[in-house]
Amino acid sequence: MNNYETVFILTPVLSDDQTKEAVGKFKKTLKSCGAKLKFDEAWGLKKLAYPIQKKSTGFYFLFEFEAEGDAINKLEVEFKRDERVMRFLTMKMDKDHVAYAEKRRGIMAEKKSAKA
Length: 116
What we know:
Blueprint: E1 2-10, H1 16-32, E2 36-52, E3 55-67, H2 69-81, E4 85-92, H3 95-115
Antiparallel strand pairs: 1-3, 1-4, 2-3
């Protein structure tokens, strides 16, 4: 099992319910392939560096998960089939990347607990 990180952008014309449904669909796809979702984060509506499909913003999402290589193919096929997805990128995480991601999550958790 390898560690992967996927960032995908959904079209900005979706409602909150439609966005949650799309993200849930991709989580379900990962779980059906035997992947273990370690972390997921919604980055929210962000401005794009360049227009995609005549849109200048999009909803960004991050998944960190552990899976076999064939799960990546199935997930990316789902991304390509879904017209709500504007762009996606999946990267294999090496040990340094995994350590950095865990450290980042720890810092974010501390900030959240300090605000509460």
